[in-house]
Write a structure and sequence with these properties.
Blueprint: E1 2-5, H1 10-19, E2 25-28, H2 45-57, E3 64-74, E4 80-81, H3 88-91, H4 105-116, E5 125-136, E6 139-152, E7 168-170, E8 175-176, H5 182-188, H6 190-202
Parallel strand pairs: 1-2, 1-3
Antiparallel strand pairs: 3-4, 3-5, 5-6, 6-7, 7-8
C-alpha cells in the first residue's frame, strides 16, 4: 500500500521513507510542485500538520496523505524557534557578519540560533519535535508525535543531516545529529518515532488492513 507524503524536502523524504514499516511504501505526493502551498499560520506543530494534511488530501481524492510539522524547541528560548524553525533567521531579521553570498537558509538559521544563545551557559537543553498527521479526503485518520532530547552546542559539528542537526548534540552518543550515520539517526529520529507511532495507529498489529 502507498501512503503519500506532502513534502518535497529531500531530508524529510529520506527520514520518513527509511523509517517506514508494516509493508507500507511512502512516496511523494504526485504533482506536489504544481500545488500552491497553504499558509502555515497555526501556532502549534499539530495545528499546522492537520492543516497541511487536510489541504493536500483534497488534491489526492481517496488516498491517504501524510503531512508533518516539525522543528526545534530550545528551553532557554521559551521553546523557540518552534513552529518557525525553518524561518527563524528571517523572523529575527538576522544578518551574519560578513555573510557570504553562498550562505544557505540552514546555515543562517544555525548562526542566528548561536547568536540568540550566546549568553546562555551549557547545558542548553532542547528537543526536536515532529507531529505527523494522516488524512484522507476531508477526514483526519490519525495523529502522532515524536521527540528526541538533546543540547545545543556552541559550534556546529558534522556534515550530514539538515536544519539544526550540526548544533543538536546527543550526550549519550557523544555526537551531533549531523555526525550520525543514516541508520543510527533513524533509530532515534523524531520523524522516525512519529511515523512509527502513526503507522501503529493506522494499522494496529491486530488489524493490518487499511482504515475504512
Amino acid at each position: 500500500m502507498i501512503l503519500y507524503l506532502a513534502t518535497s524536502n529531500p531530508g524529510k523524504l529520506r527520514d520518513f521513507a527509511a523509517a517506514a514499516s508494516h509493508g507500507i511504501t511512502l512516496a511523494p505526493l504526485p504533482n506536489l510542485k504544481d500545488i500552491p502551498a497553504p499558509e502555515e499560520d497555526q501556532p502549534t506543530f499539530a495545528g499546522n500538520a492537520r492543516l497541511k494534511a487536510l489541504y493536500y488530501a483534497a488534491h489526492a481524492p481517496g488516498q491517504i496523505v501524510l503531512a508533518d510539522d516539525s522543528g526545534l524547541e530550545v528551553d532557554a528560548l521559551h521553546l523557540a524557534p518552534g513552529v518557525r524553525s525553518a524561518r527563524y533567521a528571517d523572523d529575527m531579521n538576522f544578518s551574519a557578519p560578513l555573510e557570504p553570498a553562498s550562505l544557505n537558509p540552514d546555515e543562517r538559521n544555525n548562526l542566528c540560533l548561536l547568536q540568540a544563545l550566546s549568553q546562555t551557559p551549557a547545558p542548553r537543553t532542547a528537543r526536536y519535535r515532529c507531529v505527523l498527521v494522516a488524512a484522507r479526503d476531508a477526514e483526519v485518520l490519525a495523529e502522532a508525535n515524536g521527540t528526541v532530547e538533546g543540547e545545543i552546542l556552541t559550534t556546529p559539528r558534522g556534515t550530514s543531516g539538515f536544519g539544526f542537526d550540526p548544533l543538536f548534540y546527543l550526550p549519550a552518543l557523544h555526537s551531533t545529529m549531523a555526525e550520525l550515520d543514516p541508520a543510527t539517526k533513524l533509530t532515534l529520529s523524531h520523524r522516525g518515532r512519529a511515523l512509527s507511532a502513526l503507522l501503529n495507529a493506522l494499522f494496529p498489529a491486530t488489524n493490518s488492513t487499511p482504515p475504512k
